[in-house]
Amino acid sequence: MSVTLGYAMAGRPSPDLAEQLAELAASGVDSRRIFTDRAAGSADKVRPGLLALQSYARPGDVVVVVSLDRLGRSAAEVAQIVADLTSRAITVRCLANGLDTASATGRAVAEVLTELAVLDSETAHRS
């Protein structure tokens, strides 16, 4: 049985979680299944809410975010998280831009993000 999960992160440019939580709830995500973090400062700070979401999510589940920038602090980090979830057969839905990796177009976008994450990883290893 699939479960719909939500993730919200407060930080720049959205310092308040309330708006994100309201949007996730309005999209049908049960408030008891929303994982949250408050990001402040360091880009390498561990986010326990995201780690808990990644640990909790199972194949067939759906992860909903208000916008992709809430998943990570950089394009590479967002790409890596989307690639990880997609490779585990977990659907990612983004309310802001309509990304849905359950659709053919969404899967194509996820594949591009996966390739970008691989490229970024390879570049980092060469440095």
UniProtKB/TrEMBL annotation:
Q: Which residues form the Resolvase/invertase-type recombinase catalytic domain?
A: 3-127
InterPro entries in the record, alphabetically?
Recombinase_CS, Resolv_N, Resolvase-like_N_sf, SSR_resolvase
Specify the domain of life of the species encoding this protein: Bacteria
Q: Name one GO molecular function term.
A: DNA binding
Classification via PANTHER family: DNA-INVERTASE FROM LAMBDOID PROPHAGE (PTHR30461), RESOLVASE HOMOLOG YNEB (PTHR30461:SF26)
Task: Describe the family membership recorded for this protein in Swiss-Prot or TrEMBL.
Answer: Belongs to the site-specific recombinase resolvase family.
What is the protein named? Recombinase family protein
Organism equals: Mycolicibacterium obuense
